[in-house]
Structures are given as structure tokens and as C-alpha cells.
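REQUEST FORM: STRUCTURE PREDICTION
Request ID: SP-0412
Submitted by: Lab K.M.
Chain count: 1
Length (residues): 333
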Amino acid sequence: MATIRDVAREAGVSLMTASRVARGQEGVSDKTRARVLEAMEKLGYQPDQLAKALRTRQNNTIGIIVSDVENIFYMQVIALMEQRLKAKGFSLLISFSNEDPDVEISSAEMMLGVRVSGLVITPVRREDNRLEQILRNRRVAVLQLYRNVYPQIDSLVVDDRYGARVATRRLLEEGHRRILLLDVDWEGRASGYRAAFREMNMPVDERYIQTYRLNVTEEARIQDHIQHLWPTAIVAGTNLLGYSAVSACRKLGLSIPADISVIIQDDISWISLMDITAISQPMGKIAQEAVDILIESIQRSRTRDGEGPEYPPKCRIIRPSLIERASIAPPSP
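STATUS: Completed
RESULT:
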């Protein structure tokens, strides 16, 4: 079994430098850290993380609780986060809540039980006293990703209100009035939709704001709403709703954009492949900022160790952008 001395020899660094990387400490350049991590992987070096956690009451593992395993966007961002965290000496422990609050609670308790250094969550409920109490009683860095439910905890969210407003306004400028918003049960998109109509001095028909459940295939409901409301355009609030909307249009024999225009929030591979206009969320920036906030919080918590002043929680908001493609046209007569 490889030792830390073997790793230092393989990477061409001092034993102290290799040990600092293994412990996740600062004071090592990114280039040197990457070389040491590469040597660890090549030699199959496995530090005793459990013993370390019991000794120091912390380890270099980040827990991530994913709210929707089927959302490709979430998984791509996590993959980018893993690259950045690995370069800094952290490993990932991933669990999937799939929008189930009970699973979310058990996952959080499990991760805190093995003393992760940080925890990334996308809260399932707007308020869950059980989760709030668990997080409050444990001294660990926590980041809310995509949803800001607990104001006392750091958060990084995408401005979905802005995205929906930009998408709706673009369709209004094209001449559309019957615009179907496929919303989800989280605040933001509907207010952005209404704001776009107000900016154009146009009335809002609330029938065209439809809310769908998360983590559930809604193609049948979307098809029913298209048949009854006959929108000339659709703004899909997520890539999953966008997929269901495109499928529903095909089953109804509607051509995009000749019969109906479509804009989807989230810009993943199949959306660009189908040449659909999208509200693009910068995955690289989201991953980088999430890691930066988390690492900073971990360093603060390790420095304080229960002493010193409290730091105010951070709330960073990232604005998406409109990517024009071939899914928009003036409404057909």
C-alpha cells in the first residue's frame, strides 16, 4: 500500500508539501497540488479519512444532496464543481433527494454524521424546521444552490425571474400575445412573465401561467393546456418542462416555429442540437462561484472553531442570458 512518502517521491515534492495536500491545507500552489493529487491517484494512495475525521473533527469531503437526478443541468454543474474541488484536495459524497423532504433529512444527517467539511443542498421545501434545526446545531459550511430558503445560510441562485422576463419580452416583441408559461412551484418566473407584459403596457391573461410539479413528467397536462388555450408561443421554465413541451407539440402536429414558438430556460445539449432559443445559465460560472463560496466558508469555520465573530451569510445571484436560435417566428395567422 502506497504511503505519503511514496506520493512525495512520485510528485517530486517534499514530504511536508505532500502532507499538506493530503490534509487539504492551504499554502500549496494549484500546479503543485494538481501534481501531488495526480501522484496519489497513480499510486492508489488512500488516506485514512475516517481516522482523520475522528482526530480533527473534520475531513476534506463535500456532501452534495441533489434534488432531481433526472435534471441534466444539475448533474453537469456538479461535474464541473467536482473538477474544481478535486484540484483543491476535496472529494465529493453525493446523495439524491428527488424532491422528497424525508430523504433530504436522512441524507443531511448521514453526511453530517461522517463530518463532511461542507454541504451543498437544493432545499426541497420552502421551510422545513427539521432541516433548519439540523443545520443550525452543526458547525459546518452549508451552501444553498439554486434556491434560497434559509436566509441565515449562504446561497447561490440563478435569477429565474429575469430569465422569464427576457424570454417573454422577446416573444412579445415578435408579436405574440398568447404566451404559455410553464412554471414550477418556486417563486420567480411568473413575476418575470408579468413584468414583461407590464413593460409593454399589455394586460396579462392569468390562464396562460400554468404551474407544474417538480420531478414529474407533465407532457399530458401540457398537451391539454395547448389544446385548450392554443398559445402561439411557449416559455418553458426548466429543461424538463421544455422537453415535455416539445414532445407535446409534436404529438399535436405543431411545427416549431411555424406553428408555435418556443423558448426554454436552461441551455443543455439537446436544446442547442434542436436549434431552440434558450435562456442560458452559465454552468462554469455557477460551479466556480459555488466552490469559491463553499471553500471560503470552510476556511472561516476552521479558523473560528466556535470562537470569534459571526460572518453575515452571502447571497449571490447570477443572471442568465438569451441565446437566439431558430425556434422563434411571428405568430401564424
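NOTES: The mean pLDDT is 88.
Reviewed by: T.R.
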